[in-house]
Amino acid sequence: MGPHPAVAAIRLAVRRVLHDVLTDLARPADPRTPAGTPPLVLVACSGGADSMALASALAFEAPKLGIRAGGITVDHGLQAGSDLRAAEVVSRMTALRLDPVESVAVRVGRDGGPEAAARDARYAALDEAADRLGACAVLLGHTRDDQAETVLLGLARGSGIRSLSGMAEVSGGPGRTNRYRRPFLQVDRQTARKACMVQSLPVWDDPHNIDPAYTRSRLRHEGLPALEKALGKGVVEALARTAQLSRDDADALDAWAADAEAGVRDEDGRLECAKLYALPPAVRRRVLRRAVVAAGSPAGSLFARHIEEVDRLITGWRGQGAINLPGRVEAQRQGGRLVIRQG
Questions:
Q1: Model pTM above 0.90
Q2: Where is pLDDT greater, at 63 or 156?
Q3: What is the DSSP letter of 279?
């Protein structure tokens, strides 16, 4: 008899991602990794059902493909006894025969609100650990339900099609574009929980996940159930499909904007307002956003309303003054050119 259907589903999802990792490793090897050393894949594990199911599947699938499997848990220090909880998660991952296994403590700042600050601290810690250990990928346990919530949060912010595209299956920062992998974006949260139950894997339910002080928690326990009551079942699946369709469209528009940018600059590299005006609005706003980020504005703090203000310097010019943007960046129109720089 084969594994329980829930276990089979999560193992298949992880197996597919590991095959993708091996395909990517056809590129030049990381110079920090000794020749002949099997590649290392880490799982980011909070101890919750999603990440424990992921850790278990990685531990099962990785050895069959000649991949080392390790784990990292991040102690955000936001709750009493968080260090003990992190130590317990390390013990559980060790019991799954993951190696290396580490707990990394972080200090959560305040920029962007508690949820964004915790996320920034977590990814910084995961990046540091992956760099130090020479890992070729880090697996994250985000499920289809998480994707649906992300799409709704993006819709509420009114930040455009990129915001509606949710989380990418593969992502990362400069120099590590393929680091983060999300095998479970097509797996629902209940399947991951069921996989833990049938394997007798202990899980920890983070009290923050039911705390109404957090926006995502309210959406999870109030917003989505209300939508399903009004619209019927299938809302989560539809939102996940919306994310993929939006991502495809956003990727195409981003590529168009990247190609168009060189054609709207003068010989000195300055943006020409007349040429910007001639672009389709969706492409023009992307060119403007790229320029603002390049000038030093943090991408995570830059919203649609900021770009709309800059866009009005092109489409609604009435002699208005400079636009102040996040990161002490200014945008102003001067002699038919758009000047974007840090103040």
A1: no
A2: 63
A3: S
